[in-house]
Design brief:
5 strands; 134 residues; (2Fe-2S) ferredoxin
């Protein structure tokens, strides 16, 4: 069992796609979003993307006005920033988008397309920091 999980994780690392789920600031905040199961959404993303992409929680991406923020970071392509990921349907749509190949290979589901946004320079810096590129 552990060996199969390790192989799936290695396959995900080889694919290179990372999904960063912001959990700092207003993202993941029970004060701002008291009815949202933040832990459950993160767990669901990890389960749906196991063997396909790494899912990493972030301390803060400084895009609090768009909380909850998820960033799909494919290898050698621009990251796709998605805001307002606050329910199971949107979370599932993001996961389907990633499973289908992400930005260059798949059309964005409407739930993703409507929530995509252009990050600020500060947002991009925070993402780089989270990914260890600072």
């Amino acid at each position: 069992m552990a060996r199969a999980k390790r192989r799936r994780e290695q396959a995900a690392d080889a694919a290179g796609t990372t999904v960063v789920v912001c959990r700092g600031g207003d993202c993941g905040s029970r004060a701002k979003h008291p009815d949202i199961d933040h832990v459950g959404l993160l767990r669901e993303a990890r389960e749906r993307l196991e063997g396909v992409a790494r899912v990493l929680p972030s301390a803060c991406l400084d895009a609090c006005e768009r909380s909850n923020v998820v960033v799909v970071v494919p290898p050698d392509e621009e990251p796709v920033w998605i805001g307002e990921v606050l329910d199971a349907d949107t979370n599932a749509a993001v996961c389907s988008f990633v499973r289908d190949g992400g930005p260059s290979a798949a059309a964005e589901p409407i739930e993703v397309e409507l929530r995509m946004f252009r990050p600020t320079r500060r947002n991009r810096q925070e993402l780089e920091h989270e990914l260890g590129g600072d």
